[in-house]
Every structure is written in structure tokens, then in C-alpha cells.
Amino acid sequence: MCLELGANGCVQFGMCDAVMEFAETMAFIGLQIDLVLYLMDKLNFANTKAATTVTNFAGTAFICPLIGGFIADAYLGRFLTVVVFGFIELVVSCLFCPAWFIVYNMLKICTSTLFSLAC
């Protein structure tokens, strides 16, 4: 892919793409490490259970684009697939944010009472 600049020059987009892919991969690996630490420290998962949970999350994250690509190619087409899955992402985000706020406040209450039986 090439971006036209000037009369007959073009800049290769590959380097920018490689840098963005590297940054995305580092962010995903950082998320996995943070998730393992969170599961072990805050939710008291065993080391093996936390690692298994994060591995399952990563596997799901890597298989979902393949499933979405198959649905796009076989049934819906590119535009309709982007619209449908974008809408699903929006709905999940709108449901997840209030749910996380409620869970976070419950954890704050439980932490302040030193994990009483009411939690």
C-alpha cells in the first residue's frame, strides 16, 4: 500500500504498519500480564488458575477475528459485518461500564469493612 506524495513519489506504508502492530502487540501482552497479576492479587486466584484464565482470554481474542471474517465472507459482506459487530461492541460497552462501576463500588465497600461476612 502506498500513500501518494508529490508528483511521482510515494511513501511506503509498511513501516508505519509495522510500528503500529508492534505497539498493539506490546499493549496486548501488557494487558495479559496485568490481568494475571490482578487475578492473583485482588481475586485470590492460584497462579495456575490465573494463567489458564488469561490464556483462555487470549485464545478467544485471537479466534474471534477468524469467526468474524468467516461470517463476513460467507454471509453478510464487509459493510454489514462492520455495522453489526460495531453495534454489538457498542451494546457490550454500554452494559459493561455500569456493571463495572457497580462491582467496583461493591469491592470498595467490602475492602473498607475488611471482608466482613456481608460481602
Number of E-state strands = 2
Mean pLDDT: 79
Largest sheet: 2 strands, antiparallel
Q: Based on CA inertia axes, which overall geometry fits?
A: extended
Widest sheet: strand ordering: 1-2
Radius of gyration: 21 Å
Can you tell me the residue ranges where pLDDT is under 50 for at least 5 consecutive residues? none
Multimerization status: single chain
Strand and helix order: EEHHH
Describe the structure in your own words.
With 119 residues, the chain is mainly alpha-helical. The protein has a domain at 11-76. It has 3 helices and 2 strands, in the order E-E-H-H-H. Strands 1-2 form a two-stranded antiparallel ribbon. A hairpin with a 3-residue loop joins strand 1 (2-5) and strand 2 (9-12). Helix 2 runs antiparallel to helix 3 (78-112). The protein is extended, with a radius of gyration of 21 Å. The mean pLDDT is 79.
